[in-house]
Amino acid sequence: MEELCVVTTGGTIDKIYFDDKSDYQVGEPQIGRILQELGVAFPFRVLPLVRKDSLHITAGDRETIRAAVAADTARHVLITHGTDTMVDTAKVLASIPDKTMVLTGALNPARFRGSDAEFNIGCAVGAVQSLPPGVYIAMNGRIWKPEQVRKNVAANRFEAVD
């Protein structure tokens, strides 16, 4: 794999909480630090685009993300995104040809002990290297096409659409 472009958009993976999960801000992207600490054996660069909870990502933000990914020279793109509207953004990216794009995030902030962030990032890195061009969601140890998955908020996990 040539250089991996990592686009960050905020979401829980980058959140910093100041109390019991109500007062927060979306902090600096964590994925660069995570990839360095894991000692990945490929070049990557981090492109921070948006720093929002995904419930606050607008159609304009999605177009900014789509345009940046489309314009980037990388053929492999990993996108960190909040889980609540990750599928919506993935569907917007589906119009980009000739790139393998994988969106991932975390149900708990990367700064929290026991976060699913590192596991989801690892799954996404494997997926972005091995899948054909298209857009995919990597969460909970599974890889889905955006039209085949949804977030089950009550169960706090991703699952296949019935």
From TrEMBL:
It holds the Pfam family Asparaginase. The active site is at 12 (o-isoaspartyl threonine intermediate). Residues 4-159 form the L-asparaginase N-terminal domain. The keyword Hydrolase applies. Substrate binds at residues 54, 83-84. Its EC number is 3.5.1.1. SUPFAM superfamilies: Glutaminase/Asparaginase. It comes from the Bacteria. InterPro entries: Asp/glu_Ase-like_sf, Asparaginase/glutaminase-like, L-asparaginase_N, L-asparaginase_N_sf. It is an enzyme of class 3 (hydrolase). GO terms for molecular function: asparaginase activity. Keywords: Hydrolase. This is Asparaginase. The lineage of its organism: Bacteria, Pseudomonadati, Pseudomonadota, Gammaproteobacteria, Lysobacterales.
